[in-house]
Structure formats: structure tokens, C-alpha cells
Amino acid sequence: MYKFLIIAIFLLFNISYAANLQGKITYTVQSARIEAFKDLARKIPKEMFQNYKKDKYQKENIQSIKNKIYIIDKEPKRNINPFYALNKMALYSVEYEDDINRKYYYNMLGNLVKYEINDFSGSYPYRAIAYNKNGNVINITFVVSETESFIFDKNEKLIGHWFEDNFYNKKGSKSYQRILK
User: Fold this and answer.
1) Among residues 29, 25, 24, 36, which one has the least CA distance to residue 161?
2) Sign of CA dihedral 58, 62, 65, 67
3) Residue among 72, 65, 74 nearest 106 (CA)
4) pTM for the whole thing?
5) CA distance 15 to 73
6) Given 104, 107, 165, 178, which residue has the most CB atoms within 10 angstroms?
């Protein structure tokens, strides 16, 4: 009887421990906001993105998107993500393989719209901070998982919530779509 009790306690402890390890952290808008703005650099030097104000590969990148090719294997190796509004491509992002913590967002003419720095180190959650051409914060994205993130403006107000391929604005209306690889 004593052995049975010890085995039962041991199994109970291990089952509850394993369940905790596999648990998923859920963020509310408020808890995501707190994490997003912790120790935030609100301004960066413009020199950090000076060489990327114009997409040198704009024609090739847009053609690749039209051909549904989102990973460019020739030099410079890069990932491209299109963003659509009203079923029309509105902008695209470029992330170079040799610097995955920086992303450049361009309009259809290949002009830099915003520059993003993320602190991804191999696990979630992480932050992606977008800056304008003057180096000032535009918005902060708190990335919870591969398919979910919260976006806040520079004044800490919720802009919206990405869930899977869809973006929902602060009122809950779907307004953008993206293609996740």
C-alpha cells in the first residue's frame, strides 16, 4: 500500500510538471503592452538604415512576389513578404539572410516606408520595433507566436492584432491580409 501511494504521488507530480512545461502563455492587450514598451529605444540614428532607403532589388522582388516566390536564394539571399489591402498589394517587406533582426518595408515604388529591428533570439515572445525615416518609433509589435502578434502605436495605444493571416484593427474589423510561409 505504501509503495502504491508513493508511485501515485510521483506520477501525479510528473504529470502536472509536464503539463506546465507544455502550457502556452496567453497575453491580454494590457500585458502585451507592458512587455512591448519595456526598455524601449524611442529614437535610433538614421545611419542605421541609410543604405536601404530605396530597394535596390525592387523589380526583382515584386516579380518574385507575383510568381509566389518569397525566398530568394541568389545573393543577396532574402525573404520577401507581401501585404495586401483590399486584395491589392500595398507594400512588401525584405529581410536579408545575413541580418535577420532587421526588416525593411517598401511601397510599390521601392521607397522605404519603415525600418524594423527585432530582438528575436530563437524563442517567443519577442518585439519588433518600427522606425520612420527620421529614426523615431512608429509602432511596436509584440510577437507572441509564429501566427499571433499585437501592434501598438508610439503612444502605447493598440493599433491591432495579427492572428494567422489576418489583421484585426482595434475595433475588431479585419483590414489586412498577409501570406505566412
Assistant:
1) 29
2) negative
3) 65
4) 0.74
5) 45
6) 104
